[in-house]
Design brief:
Low-confidence stretches: none
Mean pLDDT: 88
Strand order of the largest sheet: 1-2
Order of helices and strands: HHHHHHHHEHHEHHHH
Number of helices: 14
Largest sheet: 2 strands, parallel
Helix content: 55-70%
Oligomer: single chain
Strand content: under 5%
Shape: elongated
């Protein structure tokens, strides 16, 4: 993936994938508490390490949304909370972690029992379309990544790789949104208005700065002089006549 499509640092990326040690009681109750049906499904497995491993896999798919192999480390308080519900020793999880074929079998069982599915190209398109709509209102990276994760989790889609897929979707959708907004704004402006906008980056004859730089200057502390400066800027903007017809 191109460097420009990496929106997060490795540490920031980890924050989305890992289970936080200081997880809230609400999150424990919502994502890590089993129903009677869950207990019945977990108890189908004969050995304690398989019961616990299956239970942990089910929980990580619910939150944070990735597979156990991606999440890797389960905080001790969370593991203890899960283990207590099914009456097994949390230490036996180390045996389960060594058995990759069993983990794959359990993942398939969870998909069949609970309706989870793998991320597909169709999901890429639908999530990207959702992000495009979000990005036209708010292009903040954190907001868009969270929107993508929430969108996929609600559909019980096992979350794909953060760096290769989710960040890429956000990057592409944000670029598309910027181009769409620019096209809309550009088509809404007359040629005269465009010329006026271009003039904002030309230097004032009597000052060593552009009108744009002048308009962006902070007015300073509250005072009659600062108030007059704001009035002057408002008058300057009014003279540009840059109101846009949103129905154009």
């Amino acid at each position: 993936m191109a460097r420009g499509k990496e929106l997060l640092t490795p540490d920031e990326r980890l924050e989305y994938i890992r289970i936080k040690p200081n997880i809230s009681e609400w999150e424990l109750a919502t994502y890590y508490t089993f129903t009677d049906h869950d207990i019945d499904v977990i108890n189908r497995h004969r050995r304690d390490h398989n019961k616990l491993g299956f239970a942990v896999q089910l929980c990580t798919l619910r939150h944070p949304g990735w597979s156990f192999a991606d999440v890797k480390e389960i905080p001790a308080p969370v593991l203890l909370y899960i283990a207590k519900q099914i009456h097994v020793d949390p230490e036996v999880l180390s045996l389960y972690a060594q058995r990759e074929p069993t983990r794959r079998e359990h993942m398939e069982e969870i998909r069949q029992e609970y309706g989870y599915r793998n991320f597909s190209i169709r999901d890429y398109r639908s999530c990207s379309q959702h992000l495009l709509s979000c990005a036209q209102e708010n292009e903040n990276t954190t907001f868009l990544i969270t929107s993508a994760i929430d969108f996929l989790r609600k559909q019980k889609i096992i979350l794909p790789a953060m760096q290769r897929t989710i960040e890429r979707m956000v990057w592409e959708s944000r670029n598309r949104a910027e181009k769409r907004i620019f096209k809309f704004l550009n088509n809404s402006l007359t040629e005269w208005q465009k010329e006026k906008l271009d003039s904002l980056i030309d230097l004032f004859e009597e000052k060593d700065k552009t009108p744009l730089a002048w308009l962006r200057e902070m007015p300073g502390q509250s005072s009659p002089e600062a108030f007059l400066k704001i009035i002057k800027k408002l008058e300057y903007l009014r003279e540009l006549k840059l109101s846009i017809n949103i129905n154009a």
